[in-house]
Amino acid sequence: MELLLSSAIGMLTAAGVYLILRRRSFAVVLGTTMLSYAINMFLFATGRLVVDQPPIIQKGVTSYTDPLPQALVLTAIVISFGMTAVTVMMALGAFLEGGDDRVDMPRSDREPEVSRIDAGEGRA
Amino acid sequence: MNHILIAPVILPAVMGALIILWMRADLLLQRVFSIAGTALLLGVAIYLNWLASSGEVLVYRLGNWAAPFGIVLMLDRLSALMVALTATLALAVQLYAFGSGWDRKGWHFHALWQFQMMGVCGAFLTGDAFNLFVFFEVLLIASYGLMTHGGGPMRLRAGVQYIAYNLAGSTLFLAALGVLYAVTGTLNMADMAARVAVMPAEDTALLRTGAVLLMLVFAIKASLVPLHFWLPSTYANAPGPVAALFAVMTKVGVYAIIRFYTLVFPQDTVIERVVMDLLLPAALFTLAIGQIGVLGTRNLGRLAAFAAVGSVGTLMIAVSQFTPQATTAAIYYLIHSTLASAALFLVVDMVGARRGDLWLRLDSVMPGNGIVSALFFGTAIAVVGMPPFSGFIGKLLVLDATRETVAAPWIWSTVIVTSLIAIYGMARAGSLVFWKAYEFQDVPMAAAAPVPPSVGPIPAKLEPDEHIQDLEDAASPALAAASVGLLLAGIVALTIFAGPVTRFAQDTAEQLHNPSIYLGAVLEDQEGTK
């Protein structure tokens, strides 16, 4: 089971990192989702892997699984779910306003398109 | 247990909710309540500073649960100082947002502002590592909204980058916390510190991994090279007042580094050495790249952003030493650089509002050239760290604190050479924008093809509808200029009262480098808890 879980985490992370490095926002959104899945599983594993044991105290049970990672994962799921929604909305907004869904900044972010001096005007 | 400790978190949360639920339709009410809320927060912060000045570490146990199990908030000198700095900055910048009319160019500016305050103050006060993650998320979510406030294609695109980068950072944060939890079995920072201290050296491989992962997360927030790539485009495209508020966001990362690596992984452990070896070169590169960026950029907004990167570099040089003297210098420079970066962003925004764009090129003389150029001049001097302002004192303190280290030649030469580069960059920008403008004859054709306003200028108002009260041009340029003046006055005060501030910073540094006070306050002395 350890092998299964760790290889699943590894593959999800690899896929997530690859997708995050793409230039289109759709791939980046998918990538962050994959990464957050990988991290959620990883957080589960930090409480040690056990099968068939309750996280909450019950009568007649002597061994338990660690309840804290489950609470952490719940928080992390809520946050990453909300963040994915925000990213999708922002990417959609950028796509609709900017005309394409590329993630990188265009050249006009760093340089003026046509300088008035270069255009041969002004300068007394 | 003093309930005022949680006020910096509760107050903005309640205020933000009130604004969004009751005052959605009334911008005037929003402004009054939001600014009053921030002023109240400043009052609370001053009281907290008075409380913390006794040297005691105050602990607030949420739900009165005992320490490693429940979440704690803690207040020491550093967190009280950071809350006060945040509130001061937020108040001045909020007055600017009001005066410049930025807050009516989109929805929910004031509500998001309050939530941002909540996240930042919470991150400064929390004593629980996972809670720190939650407050980071709160401040990030609010900042996503603020960063894209006002819209526009370029700003939205920069916003997508900012979100993607920070989401990756958040997942990394969770991974780091997971590793640390797996090794230590706790998330309470004091408890973690106690367990790390007794851990045998040969078992620390995973712990070191966790510590370095955590370092990467905080380095992203603090925009240390090579994790700084999100900053220039984000800050240059964010609305002016928002970028000014973000000056404190990089400091959240720096604060977290100071907190974690003095408390949980203190000096002379294996981890500390790993981190120190990584941190100093990163800080030097950050400083160099920031200041070279100041010189190399062709846009005033990016100039301010690169100046912010550079200031983080200087700050991190001091932090990376982890000695009381260097931490003293770091705290002094932290206050200075927050105020100075914020003032620079605001001045740049004033330029943008008057010129229509921020490109460093000749243009006709803008209205109010005198006052704006005077403010730019003062701010630029403060940012690059020339006398007479506090940047100079801060840099001197940093240089003095690193005098006897092995890396001193590297540190000194980098700081001094990059200061020269920054002075040149600022002088070039200032003379192009403010001085040579007089040489430029306005041509009629220039007015015919206005550049689409992506940053800064006061664009057309939102479509007036029944949800937003259409204030008749309430933007008051005088108030905007006055709020920049307020920040500069803060820098002047920091210069004049450098003695008392340094002594305060010294006390703070001593408290930080003696984590047993903190451990005692959180873990022992728990009578009356559930």
UniProtKB/TrEMBL annotation, chain A:
<feature type="compositionally biased region" description="Basic and acidic residues">
    <location>
        <begin position="99"/>
        <end position="124"/>
    </location>
</feature>
<dbReference type="Pfam" id="PF00420">
    <property type="entry name" value="Oxidored_q2"/>
</dbReference>
<feature type="region of interest" description="Disordered">
    <location>
        <begin position="98"/>
        <end position="124"/>
    </location>
</feature>
<feature type="transmembrane region" description="Helical">
    <location>
        <begin position="26"/>
        <end position="51"/>
    </location>
</feature>
<protein>
    <submittedName>
        <fullName>Na+/H+ antiporter subunit C</fullName>
    </submittedName>
</protein>
<keyword id="KW-0812">Transmembrane</keyword>
<keyword id="KW-1133">Transmembrane helix</keyword>
<keyword id="KW-0472">Membrane</keyword>
<feature type="transmembrane region" description="Helical">
    <location>
        <begin position="72"/>
        <end position="96"/>
    </location>
</feature>
<dbReference type="InterPro" id="IPR050601">
    <property type="entry name" value="CPA3_antiporter_subunitC"/>
</dbReference>
<keyword id="KW-1003">Cell membrane</keyword>
<comment type="similarity">
    <text>Belongs to the CPA3 antiporters (TC 2.A.63) subunit C family.</text>
</comment>
<dbReference type="InterPro" id="IPR039428">
    <property type="entry name" value="NUOK/Mnh_C1-like"/>
</dbReference>
Automatic annotation (TrEMBL), chain B:
<feature type="transmembrane region" description="Helical">
    <location>
        <begin position="78"/>
        <end position="98"/>
    </location>
</feature>
<feature type="transmembrane region" description="Helical">
    <location>
        <begin position="331"/>
        <end position="351"/>
    </location>
</feature>
<comment type="function">
    <text>NDH-1 shuttles electrons from NADH, via FMN and iron-sulfur (Fe-S) centers, to quinones in the respiratory chain. The immediate electron acceptor for the enzyme in this species is believed to be ubiquinone. Couples the redox reaction to proton translocation (for every two electrons transferred, four hydrogen ions are translocated across the cytoplasmic membrane), and thus conserves the redox energy in a proton gradient.</text>
</comment>
<feature type="transmembrane region" description="Helical">
    <location>
        <begin position="410"/>
        <end position="435"/>
    </location>
</feature>
<keyword id="KW-0472">Membrane</keyword>
<keyword id="KW-0812">Transmembrane</keyword>
<protein>
    <submittedName>
        <fullName>Monovalent cation/H+ antiporter subunit D</fullName>
    </submittedName>
</protein>
<feature type="transmembrane region" description="Helical">
    <location>
        <begin position="371"/>
        <end position="398"/>
    </location>
</feature>
<feature type="transmembrane region" description="Helical">
    <location>
        <begin position="162"/>
        <end position="184"/>
    </location>
</feature>
<comment type="similarity">
    <text>Belongs to the CPA3 antiporters (TC 2.A.63) subunit D family.</text>
</comment>
<feature type="transmembrane region" description="Helical">
    <location>
        <begin position="478"/>
        <end position="498"/>
    </location>
</feature>
<dbReference type="InterPro" id="IPR001750">
    <property type="entry name" value="ND/Mrp_TM"/>
</dbReference>
<feature type="transmembrane region" description="Helical">
    <location>
        <begin position="119"/>
        <end position="142"/>
    </location>
</feature>
<feature type="transmembrane region" description="Helical">
    <location>
        <begin position="205"/>
        <end position="230"/>
    </location>
</feature>
<feature type="transmembrane region" description="Helical">
    <location>
        <begin position="32"/>
        <end position="52"/>
    </location>
</feature>
<feature type="transmembrane region" description="Helical">
    <location>
        <begin position="6"/>
        <end position="25"/>
    </location>
</feature>
<feature type="transmembrane region" description="Helical">
    <location>
        <begin position="300"/>
        <end position="319"/>
    </location>
</feature>
<dbReference type="InterPro" id="IPR003918">
    <property type="entry name" value="NADH_UbQ_OxRdtase"/>
</dbReference>
<keyword id="KW-1133">Transmembrane helix</keyword>
<feature type="transmembrane region" description="Helical">
    <location>
        <begin position="242"/>
        <end position="262"/>
    </location>
</feature>
<dbReference type="Pfam" id="PF00361">
    <property type="entry name" value="Proton_antipo_M"/>
</dbReference>
<feature type="transmembrane region" description="Helical">
    <location>
        <begin position="274"/>
        <end position="294"/>
    </location>
</feature>
